[in-house]
Amino acid sequence: MSKTEIQTQFDTLVSKVIWPEFKKRGYSKTKNNFRYYDSAGWGKILSIQKSAYGDRSNIRFTLNTGIYLPEAERLWTRGRSISNERFLEPACLIRKRIGQLKGSDDLWYELTDQSEFDNLSRLVEQDITTRVLPYLDRIDGVEAIMQQLIQVKEPNSELAIETLFNYGYQNEARKWIEDELTKTIYRTQRQKMLELQARLAHSL
């Protein structure tokens, strides 16, 4: 079955507008995923996600970024599966959509018979060059990822804290737990933090 004009426009947007800047930076391309993996054991990715509710004449999509650490995936999967250089965005410890990077609500772009392709193309290109790439470019190694976890404390999860601890930032991980215990009003969250605190203390 031949592609519709909308599908062709989407392919053009991906390959001609978005991909070139990532290619310059040494990313690899697998379908709508642009992945960078460093042999030192970290990676970053842009995933272009289509809405499940679109069709051949109406394509809605968003931009997902991910920061990957094999150690975090090992903890998450209990060692069952480590993707390494084949990782995808769902396996990433830190995941942000373009809406978060722009400080706004969840953002989806839309290609339809009524949309102006040139205008949409310029908008996507602007968001890539002013939001996505500056964010991903700042991540240049494991240390940069650790500093982001320490400073931003996102994701606010047991996995993030334990990853920080396992990469040698024990004091920072302990402080994060203490801060959570001080401020949380939820019994379940408090119990999780206490259990994590005990588990990390036992691992030393």
A few lines on this structure:
By secondary structure, the protein is of the alpha+beta class. The protein is built from eight helices and six strands; from the N terminus they run αββββαβαβααααα.
List keywords for this structure.
alpha+beta; six-stranded antiparallel sheet; 8 helices; elongated
Summarize the structure in words.
There is one protein chain. The protein has 204 residues and is an alpha+beta fold. 51% of the residues lie in helices and 17% in strands. It is built from eight helices and six strands, in the order αββββαβαβααααα. Strands 1, 2, 3, 4, 5 and 6 form a six-stranded antiparallel sheet that branches. A hairpin with an 8-residue loop joins β3 and β4. α1 (5-24) runs parallel beside α4, α6 packs antiparallel against α7 and α7 (170-183) runs antiparallel to α8 (187-203). The termini are far apart. The relative contact order is 0.12. The model has no long low-confidence stretch (mean pLDDT 93).
